[in-house]
Amino acid sequence: MINITNEYGSISYSEDTMANIVGLSTMECYGVVGMASRRAADGFWELLRGENLSKGVKINLKENELAIELYVVVEYGTKISVIANNIIQKIKYNIEMFTGIKVSTITVNVQGVRV
Description:
Layout: E1 2-6, E2 9-13, H1 15-27, E3 32-36, E4 47-48, E5 57-62, E6 65-75, H2 80-99, E7 102-114
Parallel strand pairs: 6-7
Antiparallel strand pairs: 1-2, 3-4, 3-6, 5-6
Helix pairs in contact: 1-2
């Protein structure tokens, strides 16, 4: 649970809510095919869509700042560094604008490339 307290009261965000914001923000970026399961091992990954987007996201709260790690599948023929940069900027903007919580780090793990 992530809590914010100010002079008006307090707001609590569940990790699933934050993960959904991250997943939806990621899917808005050009070149992203979908989220990959963070349990992907040995080169096998599962493409996640729809309500399962949060399964490709790992959230850690450290000293009132978020550390986000996400797993994506990108489109073949696109420049991965540009896609990752766009994802990072989009997530940072959306999380800070929607929730007011600062984002310290975002790690984008590309689990696969799909045609």
